[in-house]
Design goal:
- The chain is mainly α and 573 residues long.
- The chain is built from 23 helices and six strands.
- The longest helix has 26 residues.
- The termini are far apart.
- 42% of the residues are buried.
Length: 573
């Protein structure tokens, strides 16, 4: 027995030191062993008549109240954790691109004119011609713009993530019993609303997941009792998906639309109910075409396509044609070479199958992980339910479309987050009935999952706040963890803002060929920005840049030093 305890402690220490996913696997293994051996406290036989369960069920059966409670609970929990999980700084290239478009929209513009010194401001996921803007679809940025108008873009992220959790609760109420729908919403709050990168960044998948929840929540209700309001909710969900992840969103949208079309193909009265929803979707498509025309000059050429024409990327999909591109900035050329190499690596069927395993691990880690994988043993029983097969089909199609890309990040599959959560909750509902020797082992396993998630959250926050030397070696790649990235830009920006005045910061090229985190991101109105970030293009071009921004304090940043050094620019007049 002592040897076994020492073995567990050794495994715990190993997992803690190297990877929090291993730690979660160790905890899940301990739970399985304890359940099998009967070491956990027994669930009371009359569990369903205990005061706690009765209060839970009473709230759950008040469906609208439950949705509202989930929304405000998600807001309150994340706000209470601000002392240990503060408002995040943008560090990833996608974040700065989304914030640029949000800044543009918050000022009442769809795009910005090309800057006269635009070659100093080129960066990843930013187009400079024919206009200066983000290359992403405008959905997430529109939400961030509302946050900017309210005082800070993270306010929009905070509210949007809580709304997503509430929408997931509403969706689950149409697929599983109310008590289980509320339990699933609790899992969503723990998984997405506390420490995931969806809530702690500016490029997560909350809006796409919200759209998927609206579509999948309206679908069974509309089948049961068609109405104008439900058709409009479904249309809003389709628009939210289309304005964020239109390609992967096809996996959710098409099965639902086809299923509804087949169910009501001979019912003219129901078809008339869909006319306002269809008009709303068509208006949203027209608005997207109008936006593309404003940015690129062609309604059928998206900013995504303009970026690909100028820089050669994105090359995420196998059928994108890679062409030889030579860019004047070494960092941009390195990023193109990275995309080209990844594209070529996945261009063959064998290469796609080989690397899809690694990509699937990323999705599994975020949406399930070891703790939430245990209930998936009930998937064969779930498949026998014809009602749940649409969820399995939609979720499977979305994941397949996500894995087709050379990088498969969790927010790519966000339209299917509602499918994944519903399948998980239904598996838990089936699992909780399993008994062994009169013991409710299934219920013990179900209740252990959120406990393990809370333990991982506590360890994650504790390690980050401890600032112990060994924590630098910990791999924080986990569902509840965000790589902190390079915080040098945030530190330098904070220092310059404290000094006051107007500044021009010229950034030297980075030496590390695998470091794609960029410094060169600016606001929508570059000339009016207190701090302008520009690339070092050599003495002659830098001198012209300094003369253009005369009257500013000029600095030179070396991003290769740790921490990055900032000195007065010697070439300033």
């Amino acid at each position: 027995m002592l040897a076994f305890v020492l073995y567990l402690l050794a495994g715990f220490g190993y997992a803690l030191y190297f990877d929090l996913n291993l730690l979660e696997a160790v905890l899940a293994g301990v739970v399985l062993l304890c359940v099998y051996r009967g070491w956990l406290p027994k669930v009371p036989p009359k569990f369903r008549v205990t005061p706690a369960w009765r209060a839970w069920a009473k709230l759950a059966y008040r469906r609208k109240t439950a949705v509202v409670v989930v929304f405000f609970s998600a807001l309150a929990i994340r706000a209470a954790l601000l002392p240990v999980l503060p408002v995040p700084h943008p560090v990833v290239t996608d974040e700065f691109s989304q914030l640029l478009l949000a800044d543009t929209l918050s000022h009442g513009r769809l795009t910005n004119p090309t800057h006269p010194m635009w070659t100093h401001f080129e960066s990843i996921h930013i187009i400079q011609k024919p206009t200066y803007n983000s290359d992403y679809f405008p959905g997430p940025a529109a939400i961030l713009a509302l946050g900017m108008l309210a005082g800070h873009p993270w306010i929009a992220v905070w509210v949007l993530c809580a709304a997503m959790c509430a929408a997931l609760c509403w969706m689950l109420q149409a697929w599983v019993p109310p008590a289980w729908a509320l339990f699933g919403a609790l899992l969503a709050v723990l998984r997405f609303d506390i420490a995931s990168y969806w809530i702690n960044s500016y490029y997560g998948g909350c809006l796409a997941a919200l759209g998927g929840a609206l579509v999948l929540g309206a679908y069974p209700r509309f089948l049961k009792k068609p109405s104008f309001s439900l058709s409009l909710v479904l249309a809003l969900g389709l628009i939210a998906i289309g304005y964020t992840r239109p390609f992967e969103g096809l996996g959710v949208s098409l099965p639902v639309v086809v299923a509804l079309g087949m169910a009501f193909r001979k019912k003219l009265r129901v078809c008339w109910m869909c006319v306002p929803a269809t008009a709303l979707v068509l208006a949203a498509v027209a608005a997207l075409l109008f936006y593309s025309k404003a940015v690129t000059g062609d309604p059928f050429r998206t900013p995504y396509g303009a970026n690909q024409a100028a820089y050669g990327w994105p090359l995420g999909l196998p059928w994108f044609h890679a062409r030889d591109v030579k860019l004047q900035h070494v960092e941009l050329q390195r990023y193109y070479d990275y995309e080209r190499e990844a594209h070529d690596r996945n261009s063959s069927l064998l290469g796609e199958l080989k690397h899809s395993t690694l990509k699937a691990q990323t999705l599994w880690r975020f949406y399930f992980g070891p703790a939430l994988s245990i209930p998936l043993v009930m998937l064969p029983a779930l498949w026998r339910s014809r009602r749940m097969r649409l969820l399995l089909l939609a979720g499977g199609c979305t994941i397949l479309l996500t894995l087709m890309q050379f990088v498969s990040l969790p927010h790519y599959a966000a339209p299917a987050a509602a499918c994944i959560l519903a399948v998980l909750v239904e598996c838990m509902r089936l699992l909780h009935r399993v008994r062994r020797n009169g013991r409710a082992i299934g219920l013990q396993l179900v209740l252990a999952a959120p406990v393990i998630m809370l333990l991982i959250l506590a360890v994650r926050v504790g390690l980050e706040k401890s600032h112990l030397p060994f924590t630098q070696a910990v791999n924080f790649e986990s569902w509840c963890c965000v790589q902190p990235g390079n915080q040098n830009k945030a530190r330098v920006l904070e220092m310059l803002e404290k000094t006051g005045g107007r500044h021009l910061v010229i950034v030297k090229p980075k030496d590390n060929p695998s470091d794609f985190l960029q410094w060169i991101y600016n606001a929508a109105d570059i000339d009016a920005s207190p701090v302008v970030w520009a690339r070092d293009l050599g003495p002659e071009k830098d001198r012209a840049l300094v003369e253009y921004f005369h009257g500013r304090s000029v600095w030179l940043v070396d991003p290769n030093a740790q921490p990055a050094s900032i000195t007065p620019f010697s070439g300033a007049p």
